[in-house]
Design a protein that fits this description.
The complex is a heterodimer of chains A (112) and B (873). With 112 residues, chain A is α+β, with helices and mostly antiparallel strands. Chain A is built from four helices and three strands; from the N terminus they run αβααββα. Chain A has a single domain, classed as Arc Repressor Mutant, subunit A (Orthogonal Bundle). The two termini of chain B are 59 Å apart. The chains are: A alpha+beta (112), B alpha+beta (873).
């Protein structure tokens, strides 16, 4: 089970990462997270949208209504340049955190 | 059957409740729900189950709305953009503009409101200054908090407790010696009027006092010359106030010079006092050392004569109440006066809390302070009621403005704030007018209250704070209800045009007008009653004739020359009689206890007002004999062994034939008809009169009516010839007697002024209400005229309403006024009974003034051409 704080902290980087592969809409984003994480990351669906609004206000993503193949119109989100920079920064931060964590978790060599 | 669209519509309603779901956001939710539903359906769930599961996945509207709200909150005040700002400078400017425009447009209402509030505030400020003045008595003494006056409480033979501030001379030194809590002690006594001379300059000094040397150290009377510690040590020292010093010595340095008192003793000036502050409950012009007391007939060593005000300065932290009890115990043990007890009265309480203490000084009274404060507040309250009534009544004229503000997003707090601001603005204008008019009103107020209040008192920070408080409270009182009322108007109703005054609002207005008129009526009834009681004092048969009687003080050797003085004076034909005595009628200062008489019950004693007089007292005063005869030179035996009493005394003693009976060791030779020994506040009690030339203090001279000036001139000449060492000073007895009711008259005057103000404000309000109500009925009046109503009929119709109000006010006011005036009249032993006349007169007066006030409006309405009022439809 992933803690609430970690979940909150990781939401934005994950959304940015997903959108870095191309535009997408809310329901699909959630489905992709669920599938990739094997269900271990589970967002309460409605809460995604305020986060998206915040990110849009912060100019990390942009959105538009697109109707694909005459189906119902969908609210698509797209990553901005600012968003890409933010994603890189996030990735390196997470990398550093993970490295540090891994480093201290490995068995230590004891010098004679 | 499950209907998806219907269910989704229901589900969306929950989201639409939240204003954080801005345009389009709910669509996101709906699409998400539909996607989730579709995929769950594919998984094989039934439509109903799929829907409920999808709803669960999306989450609750409340928690999502909260997250959206967080995105939108502004940094400064956590406000969301779709809410208006709490303060908008542009709007404030608009409020001010509208308020000023309204004041300008509705001149009549504005004048009524602002003038009324100004009058109310002005009277409140005056009374505030007066109350401050009354409360500040004796506070100028550095030690004010630690100085106490000793009070004796004596139970007289009748069982009543009498309190007075005069104590035997032995008490003071005993207190100082035996109680370490007493740091210093000073005895003080006024020896009344004395003749003071510097060579040719001879004057009567009315206010000469004796005191211990420590007096000037305990109190902070400002000494301009001389030393407070030593000024009164020498038995022949004298301390003058500045005015007296200039009177006797002009520009010379008075210190070290001598003054002669009563043509006998010489006293050397050892100190000059700057004037005694007006807020002093102890007053004197000249101070003499206690050591000189015996020269003025005052004892210096006894427990049995009660003469001296005794002041003590206590050590810090001493509980005056406990010390008072200890002192009382010690006093009854040492002095042997077991029916007496003592207490300590703090100096700052002397002025306002001495109404139960018998003393000659005219003091203030805390009850009067309360009464005047309440009256002033009532006047202000009436002005506030006018504001409230006129503002709510005009609601219709502001209705559209309010509705428009609300429609464009004003919250009711803002509307209420706007109208409260307007009332504050008008109150502020009224306050400015009130403050500007104070310099004009102060002289009038001073003459009415007998005070000398100066403008500078207004400038203290405490007063300014109080004024600001007045302003805020008045603004709130006047404006709060109208603000809440106007802010609660429903914009839809107002804009649709069917705006009607609520019945509740107009009922409240009527009630308040009725309240105003009840107050006014009560004040009018009160004024009339006070006036009648004062007239009663002036006209009631007293049992003697106070007119055309002169009082001349007898001092020094003059009291021994009474016979020759009288003989010389009576040579003038304009003088009908002359008599010497210790006190004038109605101003007796002495009482004695009769301990022995025939037929006395065991232990019975009789307290008796007492005067020493000569054989012409009854003739000069026109006092009639009931039995026997008055003192006469032709009587056998010594006149000093005889006594004359009044009828009340005869009754109290239980004598059937009093003549020849003995009272103590004197023989009763006559009984006079009752006459008052004191003012008519108290009932006439037993009076005893005794002949003793040694005690005479006044010569009373009866002048033929109409001959005042010639008689006075000849009297002055005679006086110069016979008593050249003594200044010729006189007073008219009737004026002195009128002075006994001075404080009652002062109170009557103040009540009259408040009555006028209340009447003025109530009628201003009525004028406003009448013009408003009549304006609303213009069309009705027009219709009635068209259908044949005459001008008088319409006026009668319009006046009927107001007559009802006054009638209702009378019903409320009369019983209350009756009760209150009865309470007040009870303080007089001789009083008028409250007649139905005052009530009828007051009601008629109020009704007439009210009808006169509204007639200005109703005549115009009734005579208006109906074409003008009906045409505009």
């Amino acid at each position: 089970m992933i803690s609430k704080t970690l979940m909150a902290a990781s939401t934005r980087p994950i959304i940015l990462a997903i959108l870095s592969r191309g535009k997408d809409y809310g329901y699909n984003i959630i489905q992709r997270v669920k599938n990739i994480s094997g269900g271990s990351i589970e967002w309460s669906d409605g809460m995604l949208y305020p986060v998206m609004q915040r990110m849009e206000l912060d100019r990390l993503i942009s959105s538009e209504w697109i109707s694909v193949d005459g189906g119902r119109p969908r609210h698509y989100y797209r990553i901005t340049d600012d968003g890409r920079q933010a994603l890189e920064a996030e990735l390196s931060s997470w990398q550093k955190i993970l490295n540090t964590m891994i480093h201290f978790s490995q068995p230590q060599l004891v010098k004679e | 059957m499950f209907e998806l669209e219907k269910e989704i519509k229901e589900w969306k309603k929950e989201f639409n409740k939240y204003e954080s779901f801005e345009d389009g956001l709910v669509v996101d939710m709906e699409l998400h729900l539909r996607d989730a539903f579709a995929s769950l359906l594919q998984e094989g769930l039934s439509a109903e189950d799929a829907f409920h599961k999808a709803v669960g996945q999306v989450g609750t509207a409340d928690s999502i709305a909260r997250e959206y709200r967080k995105n939108r909150e502004l940094a400064l005040d956590r406000r969301t953009p779709w809410r208006p700002a709490r303060f908008m400078p542009a709007l404030a400017w608009n409020y001010l503009k509208i308020a000023l425009r309204k004041i300008k447009r509705q001149k009549g209402f504005s004048i009524i409101n602002i003038a009324g509030l100004a009058v109310g505030l002005c009277s409140c400020i005056m009374i505030l200054l007066w109350v401050q003045d009354e409360m500040n008595y004796d506070r100028f003494h550095v030690n004010a908090g630690a100085i106490h006056r000793v009070i004796v409480h004596a139970t007289n033979p009748g069982g009543n407790v009498e309190s007075f501030p005069a104590l035997p001379p032995n008490l003071g030194p005993a207190l100082k010696a035996e109680f370490p809590e007493v740091r210093q002690m000073a005895r003080f006594v006024s020896v009344g009027q004395q003749i003071v001379a510097n060579g040719e300059k001879i004057f009567y000094e009315k206010n000469v006092s004796l005191c211990d040397p420590e007096f000037l150290q305990i109190f902070s009377f400002p000494l301009r010359r001389g030393d407070a510690k030593s000024a009164l040590f020498d038995p022949h020292a004298i301390v003058l106030n500045e005015a007296a010093a200039i009177k006797y010595f002009g520009k010379e340095d008075p210190l070290g010079k001598t003054l002669r008192l009563n043509n006998r003793g010489d006293y050397t000036v050892s100190g000059i006092l700057a004037g005694i502050p007006e807020q002093s409950s102890i007053s004197f012009d000249i101070l003499l050392p206690f050591l000189a007391a015996e020269d003025f007939g005052f004892p210096t060593q006894t427990w049995d004569r009660f003469s001296y005000n005794t002041f003590v300065l206590l050590e810090a932290g001493v509980d005056a109440r406990q010390l008072g009890e200890k002192i009382a115990l010690q006093f009854s043990r040492v002095s042997g006066h077991t029916s007496m007890t003592l207490s300590l009265q703090p100096l700052p309480e002397i002025h306002l809390h001495s109404s139960h203490i018998l003393e000659g000084e005219e003091r203030g009274n805390i009850k009067t302070v309360f009464l005047f404060s309440i009256l002033a507040l009532f006047v202000l309250l009436m002005a506030c009621i006018n504001y409230l009534n006129l503002t709510t009544a005009q609601g219709s004229s502001r209705g559209k403005e309010i509705a428009l503000r609300k429609v464009t997003g004003a919250r009711w707090e803002e509307i209420a704030g706007q109208f409260l601001g307007e009332s504050m603005l008008q109150t502020g204008l009224a306050m400015i007018i009130a403050l500007l008019s104070i310099p004009l009103c102060l002289p009038l107020f001073n003459s009415l209250s007998g005070k000398n209040i100066s403008l500078s008192q207004l400038i203290s920070p405490a007063t300014c704070g109080l004024l600001l408080g007045f302003l805020l409270i008045t603004g709130l009182l006047a404006g709060l209800y109208p603000a809440l009322y106007l802010a609660s108007l429903k914009p839809a109703a107002v804009l649709k045009g069917n705006f009607a005054q609520s019945a509740g609002g107009s009922r409240l207005r009527k009630l308040l007008v009725v309240f105003q008129f009840s107050m006014t009526l009560m004040l009018i009834i009160g004024s009339l009653t006070v006036f009648r009681q004062m007239q009663f004092f002036k006209t009631r048969p007293l049992g003697f004739n106070k007119d055309h009687v002169l009082m001349l003080p007898l001092r020094g050797s003059l009291s021994g020359q009474v016979a020759s003085l009288k003989a010389e004076i009576l040579r003038d034909s304009s003088i009908t009689s002359a008599s010497a005595a210790s006190d004038p009628a109605m101003m007796f200062r002495t009482s004695i206890t009769i301990e022995k008489w025939e037929g006395q019950k065991p232990g019975e004693k009789m307290e008796c007002d007492f005067v020493w007089c000569d054989e012409d007292y009854s003739k000069t005063y026109g006092i009639e004999m009931a039995q026997g005869q008055f003192f006469a030179k032709t009587m056998n035996g010594s006149l000093t062994d005889k006594i004359v009493i009044n009828e009340t005394a005869v009754k109290a003693l239980g004598f059937d034939s009093p003549i020849g009976k003995r009272l103590d060791d004197r023989e009763i030779i006559g009984v006079v008809k009752d006459f008052p020994a004191h003012s008519l506040h108290t009932a006439i009690g037993p009076v005893a009169m005794v002949y003793d030339p040694a005690k005479f203090r006044y010569l009373f001279v009866k002048i033929k009516p109409g001959d005042d000036t010639t008689a006075l001139a000849s009297l002055a000449r005679t006086w110069k010839r016979v008593a050249q060492d003594y200044p010729f000073e006189f007073a008219f007895l009737d004026q002195q007697i009128d002075n006994l009711y001075h404080s009652d008259q002062k109170m009557g005057g103040v009540i009259n002024v408040f009555t006028l103000l209340a009447l003025l404000i109530a009628n201003l309000g009525l004028l406003g209400m009448a013009s408003y109500l009549i304006a609303r009925r213009r069309k009705e009046i027009g219709m009635r005229k068209v259908l044949g109503a005459s001008t008088p009929q319409i006026m009668a119709m319009l006046s009927r309403e107001f007559v009802k109000w006054v009638a209702l006010a009378s019903l409320l006011a009369c019983p209350l006024a009756f009760y209150l005036m009865n309470q007040w009249l009870r303080s007089f032993a001789y009083r008028v009974s409250i007649g139905i006349g005052e009530f009828i007169l007051s009601i008629t007066l109020t009704l007439l003034i009210a009808l006169l006030t509204i007639s200005s409006q109703s005549i115009r309405a009734a005579r208006a051409n109906p074409v003008d009022s009906l045409r505009c439809e």
